Amino acid sequence: MHISKKSCIFADKITNHQSPITNHMTPISKLGEFGLIRHLTQDLTNRQPSTVYAVGDDAAVLNHQGKRTLVTTDLLLEGIHFNLEYVPLRHLGYKAVAVNVSDICAMNATPTQITIGLGISARFSVEDIEEFYAGVRVACEHYNIDLVGGDTCASMNGLSIAITCLGVADDNDIVYRKGAKVGDLICVSGNLGSAYLGLQLLERELQVFRATQHGNLSKAEENNDAIHEKFEGREYLLERQLKPEARIDIVEALRKAGIKPTAMMDVSDGLSSELFHICTQSGVGCDIYEDKLPIDYQAAALAEEMNLNIVTCALNGGEDYELLFTCDIHDYEKLVPIDDIYIIGHITPAEYAPVDVENGSSAAAKEAQQPVNLRLIPRNGNPIPLTAQGWNAFV
Amino acid sequence: MHISKKSCIFADKITNHQSPITNHMTPISKLGEFGLIRHLTQDLTNRQPSTVYAVGDDAAVLNHQGKRTLVTTDLLLEGIHFNLEYVPLRHLGYKAVAVNVSDICAMNATPTQITIGLGISARFSVEDIEEFYAGVRVACEHYNIDLVGGDTCASMNGLSIAITCLGVADDNDIVYRKGAKVGDLICVSGNLGSAYLGLQLLERELQVFRATQHGNLSKAEENNDAIHEKFEGREYLLERQLKPEARIDIVEALRKAGIKPTAMMDVSDGLSSELFHICTQSGVGCDIYEDKLPIDYQAAALAEEMNLNIVTCALNGGEDYELLFTCDIHDYEKLVPIDDIYIIGHITPAEYAPVDVENGSSAAAKEAQQPVNLRLIPRNGNPIPLTAQGWNAFV
User: Is A115 within 8 Å of B164 when comparing Cβ atoms?
Assistant: First the structure.
């Protein structure tokens, strides 16, 4: 990511919004569906030996002989998951790949291939989609994966992105959410809350920008300088929001150190929400220590400025795409030398709320029941229960 | 499919449109994302031995040991690929699975697993999504495949469906588009144009319905009886449009007969368009005989009534999801006894238009260049060139 590009984000979008198809822009109808696909995929190179046949037929063909195949799908919809007023299409392409790769990493597996489904509304040009694909290519290169297929079609409204990522692993290397045991250490990579604060910053500046602009380009450019200043010293937060990374490096570091986590997830909805998944599926509780939560100083400073509680941001802000994992206490010595991993707590025996015998038939109720003792231990004071505020998309 | 349900299609939709969340409807926010997923997937049963771990973690785990894995993705967007004014959600769920299974069949492979990404706008209730999933389950049962994962989220507008289908095959069983040889027979299963005419019928009756209804329910019910009459004797066309089948039976029949096609595709965009893909990728031409095109009598009758050329419908109407394949002339004897397969022509040597030396550097131009001798041989008269009218989504 080129930091210098960031200050232009808004100016870019002004041009795009006022005239989606300028002199330099090619309407997609000129190429048609097949022409567009050929144009976008003509010089793809395959990196994975397991890629037998990629783009150009009804299905891709893969050779995952002797290994488990892993598969995950994510849908990214304009207006819900991203706002093109401040997300450059190239970054969006990168992020769309990264968040899927992250799911494969969270299984302790190696990502190998992706497919992309793209629904494109009339306001996008061939050049726009090229930008998106440029980001996809950079991500494929960075994560050493192959783009092997997909579907490109028109959409009524906005941009719809569906990405499926495949991966491989030996059966006994795979880490599920359900394996956490009492006494295990709870660890997280990188830091928490930065992506959320990056989003708050972008949203705030967008509101300011909207309020002051009058559709006047030179005015908007002046404005852009002001926004540039607002972003200075916050580049890291923007990067965390606009170009998150899947922590494939952490998976590799753990493997090299001889550590197999007992449970693992990526932090997409927020730490609390992910802890609930691990504890519910493993049938355990947990204690998390406030003073152990890794927080970046830019995030702390912006939270202060925006009157947000930084601990709440770290617990419930989503999209960090860091790895949350538990591992056996005996791995402690091997864990400590690994860079960028933080021990934030430990697994405790589960406690459940009493089952309502009238309404809940035992098996189903138990299955859906969450342990009640997921606790945050503050710096000074009594443990407080964690709540999975996460992201309810449907409210 | 219950034919008796069809006449209720419009009446159903009136109720849905006037009050998307009635007394009986549960808002999705009540369950939340994870609640909805649990609700929809709690009693899924796995049918495939290769399904190691399905829904409930970051990725599904599959064991395709010693086989090639195949993967295909399709995006289905409301307003582009389907109109919920006449497509019941249960049928849509079935069709969304079938069209992906069809892509795996078209590679001469066995479909094994699917993932579903669902973007749901606020006008849908839990019951609506249950209906969609009911169709998905029936399809999974029918095609003997497992639903192993997905993503469920909110959308700004309408329903977005992304389905990925995985399959397996031995390496030397896989059939690509690129293998057709001069002299090969060109075959198609079932019949052509019926799905397109089913769509024309639904669209016509929708227009009539819209024109005569005044938001009055009893009036609409009267109307519904009239529509019921219009659909009588056309049930097959509606079924072809609303509940297409992937021709997994044809793949099995060919295997049983010891026939491996030299090239194969499914007919989704239209016969002409698919022939262009096979001929371009195989570097061949073709002759197709008008009097050999398999056409259903309901399709022929409706085309007559609507003043449509039935041959044009058969050549360019999409969504039949029949299999188009080429096979060696020596397989003729084995081919004839198989039910529901029709020989419609044969492969000829390719002829190309002269390359413009000024503009086209040979390799790229040649690669993108299509043979010019794809021909339709009419009942009486001279061969006429086929044109890939197909479906350009971007016009």
Answer: yes
